[in-house]
Amino acid sequence: MSEDSAEEMRGKAKAIERIAVELRAEAISEGGAVRVVAGAADSIWELDLRLNAFELSGVELGELIVETIKDANRKAGAEMAEQAGQIMGREISPESFDGTPERIEREEEQR
C-alpha cells in the first residue's frame, strides 16, 4: 500500500470514527410512552418515559422499553452503515454495526 493510500485510509477511518462518536438516532414507541435516543455501538443516550408509560404494568413497560431501544439501535446502525458507506465508496450492511447479543450468537454459531 502506498503512503498516499495509507494516508487516505487513515483519513477515512478517522471520519468514520467521528461519525460513530456523534451519531444519534431516535425511536418513539407506538403511543409515545417511551422515547429512546441511541448512538453507535448500541449506546443509549436518552431514555424518556411519558406519563402514559406509568399506566402499563411493569412487564409491559419493560418490553416496550426493550423494543424501543432495539428500534433506535437499528436506526443508528442503518445510519452508521449509510454514512460509512458514503465515505468508503461502497455499500455497507447495517448488520456490520449490530452489536446485539443475537448477532454475536449468530456469528459464534457460524464459526
UniProtKB/TrEMBL annotation:
InterPro entries: YbaB-like_sf (IPR036894), YbaB/EbfC (IPR004401). SUPFAM superfamilies: YbaB-like (SSF82607). One of its GO terms (molecular function) is DNA binding. Pfam families: YbaB_DNA_bd (PF02575). Residues 80-111 are annotated as: Disordered. It comes from the Bacteria. Residues 100-111 have a biased composition (Basic and acidic residues). This is YbaB/EbfC family nucleoid-associated protein. It comes from Glycomyces paridis.
